[in-house]
Structure formats: structure tokens, C-alpha cells
Design a protein that fits this description.
- There is one protein chain.
- The chain is mainly α.
- Helices cover about 60% and strands about 0% of the residues.
- It contains 25 helices and no strands.
- It is globular.
Length: about 550
Amino acid sequence: MAPRETDNNPTEADQPAAAQRAWERLWEEGDDDGTATAGTESGRPATADAEPEAGTEPGDDRDADNDPSETADADNESSGTADDDSPPPSTPAHSTADEVVTPRLDDERIAAVRRVAAAGRRWRNLQLAGCAALLAVAMTAGAIAIGAAKDSGAAGVAVGSSAVSPELLASGSLDASIASLQAHLRTQPKDFDGWATLGLAYVEQARTKGDPSRYPQAQAAFQRSLKISPANENALEGRAALAAARHEFKEALTYADHVLKENLYSERALCSRIDALVELGRYADASKAADLADARKPGVPVFTRYAYVHELRGDVTTARKVLEQALAAATSPGDISYVAGTLGQLAWNQGDYKTALNDYGRALAADENYLPALEGRARTQAALGDRAAAIKGMELVVSRYPLPQPLVELGELYESRGAEGDRAKAEDQYALVDAWIALARANGVNADLDTALAAADHGDVTSALKAARAEWARRHTVHTADALAWALHVNGLDKEALPYARQATATNYHNASFIYHLGTIELATGHQAEGRAHLAKALKLNPGFSPLGAAKARKALEATK
């Protein structure tokens, strides 16, 4: 088993008390005028691990004239161009549990979450609001504290200006970089670039560790940066990234366009713009944005997005060619593992399991703890029939970072094995999905798509449909069309589901699950020939696309001979 990245982290007791107090005072005191801009509520300082105390919105007392984000109109994104003169929208308040917590290690955080989720199937009958509060405490307790986020003995000492460079986030340990940034900001609290970079680091940490409680920390850091220097580029780029991470894609597009008005060559803004357009279902615009970004700022971040736009349109050959170019251009372990892992996922989608395993191997050679590659390897092993290795691998993944997709996949692997106690084990995984969704919502993340996908097969189908309709009202993508179609199907509304299932596959995106859903719905609506053809197509494309779905597809084909 690869070592956990927290194995060598010092405990809370080992952290220098003076460093903790200095960090708390920095958040409590704010600017020289004595205004407490972050981490305070009713005069209480934030804990050392989470810049604002959970439930606060530090920086909201700033002068609106000094922050262009205060006067934004999110509706102005509709043009989708970088010529919009409106400033970006203000970030809405997202409340979390009103608790004071102390730093813990990641292992303790995951253990706390799993203890909360131990009630398993009983959660189906509880109000998730209370669960969200408990989980927010459990997850926030694992947030990085100054001096406690060192990786394999890396020193978290105060450093010079190099500590605040955004490029630092792409080199070495993210946790160690955050520790260095925090140390730097204790001595240079007016460094707006440092605050913006810290916010970006928290967004990345939330993504890689599956911990949405990082998002309020990121928001606080961006607010602090903008209070010091209104409209600074790094903070606005960071707000675009944060909005996208919270699934606020219209806001992400507006922030990105605002940055591009001032800097046509901002790589982060160009990439955020592509991401937002894709997630809003504006694929033609996303393709144009990818072409523009490739012309202005070619490199790994743009290449991977360019490839995905082509994959969504069914052009797998171009997607793989571009990703191979990106891998050849990648130099840092983070970039190599990300691009190689993306290549693995592309190969797996096509049922090319040998290539997928090779690609995941390349990713893990660069970073043995890279979560998507560990997950993808386990998924591929399952598709190849090596269920024991797949379960072992997926158990490792969810023991570290309990995210919805691997939790569902592990549950389905247990169900497909069918040994004694496996059904209960599966239900525990599905209950933990509910826990994660509750936590995500508590930290301002729109989790309706996750809810719809998980609940449709393994939860409350009524809740699945409600969530799917809500997500479809916000954005029309192939993923939201598929989620709505399947939610309608499991609720017995197949005639209404059929147009959405067809829309989900209209771009020729090679996704066997989408095709399986379409075939199943066609059979349910009396379209026998079309349904059988699509079930056969799904199994030909990716025979092991789902531990349970693939078996159901084969059974349906047999039943309709």
C-alpha cells in the first residue's frame, strides 16, 4: 500500500503555539484600521486550521467601492464574451456549522466522517441538515493548520516572495506550499497576491482531497486579497475557479470574462472560460473558446480542455492526440499524473482496458497517491473481471477520500460480489454518499447532479428526480440530460424521459452509461429495435462500464430476443 501523505505530519500538540497565535491574530486583526476582516464572529478568533470560523463570511465588511465584485450582475454572462463591461458577481454567503474546531490530521478527518456515516441506512429517514452540520465539523477539523501541513518532513518555514508565486502550487507538495504561504502571510499580511494564491491552493486542496470545507477558506482568502487590492487579477481568477468548483458556472464565466478584458492571455481565465461553457452545455462556444485559448496560451492546462471538448463531440482520435502532446509537454509530477490519468479515463471510456492500465500506470509512476489514477485502475480491474483487486483498490480510494463516484462504485462492486454481508457494506457506501452531499451543500456546493446520479439507483428516487429537475433548470449538458432521463425512468416516467436520453447522446459522446440508459428507456417505451441496438452498442463500446449496469444490459438483451 502506498503511504498516506499525512503519515509524517506532526500532531496538533507538536505545532508551535506562538505560530498558531500569530496566525489567529492575523485573521482577527485584519488591516491596520483594526477591522476584523476574517475569522471573527462576535469577537471570537478563528481557529488555526480554517481561516474563517465555520459559518462566517470574513471580508464582507469591506467597502463596496474598493471591490468591483460587489456590484456585479451575474445575468450579464449571457453574451459569453470577454467584452462584457459588467464586473463579476459577489460571492454569495455560504454558511456552515457554527462550531469552533481544532486542527486534526486527514486520517482523523476521514475517520470522523465515517463514524458520522456509520448509521448507514438509517440516514435515509433523517433530516440531512443535521448531518451536514456534523460532517462540516468533522471535515473542517482536518483543514490544514500552520505548521501541521508538512509532507514527508518538508519544512513549513517562512520564505521569501517566491512563496506567493502561483507556480508554487504546481511544484512539490501542495500542503507544504500552503504552510509556506501561511508563514509568509504572517509576516506580510498586505500581500494581496499571497492571499489570492492561498485561496487558489485551498480550491485545489478541496478538489484533490474531496473536502468541500476548504471552499469557505478559499473564499475568505480571495475576499482578503480583493480588500487589499480591488480587482487584482489573481484573486478574480481564483474566484472564477472557486465558482466553478461550487458548480456556479454562470458566475465562473462572468469572472473569467472580467479578467480577460484586462489580460487577453490569462491562462487561468481562458481555462475557466472553457470549463464554464462546457458545464453550461454551450459546446459550440466552448469549442471556439478552446481554439482561442490554444492560439493565445498553448500548454498543458489548455491542451487537456481542448481534448475534452473534442471528446464530448465524439472525436476521440483528436482528443487522444492532444492529450499525448500535453503529456509530452508536462514536466511536473502533478501535470504528468493529471494528463496520464485523463488519458486512462479516455481509454477506459472506449473499452480499451490495456491502454487504460498503461496510462494509469504512467500517472501513478509520477504520483503514487494520485487519486483519479488509483480509482481508474480499480475501475479497469473490475471491467477485466479482477473483482478482488478492484475492491481492494477502491477500498483504498474511499478510505482516503470518500467522494460520491468511488463510493457508489465500491458499493456496486460489493453488490456484484454478493458475499455474506456485502449488501450491508454496499448500503454503508451509499449512506456515505449522502453524507458527502450534505457536507458539500453545507459549504456552498450545488450537489444536485451528485444527488440525482446516486439516488436514482441507490436511494430515494423522488429526491433523485427533484434534484435532476433542479439541475436541468440551471444548465443543459449531456450529463444533466442523462441524469434527468434516468431519474424520470426510475420514477416510471419513461415517455417523458426519452427525449432527454436522446439529447444526452446527441453529441456522439462515447459514454456507455448514457447509451445503456437510452436503450433501457427505449425498451420501456416500446422501441424494441432501437433499445436492443443501443444496449448492444453500450456493451460493445465498454463491456464493463458498470458492475451492475453492464449485467442488467446483458440480461435485458437476453430477455428481448
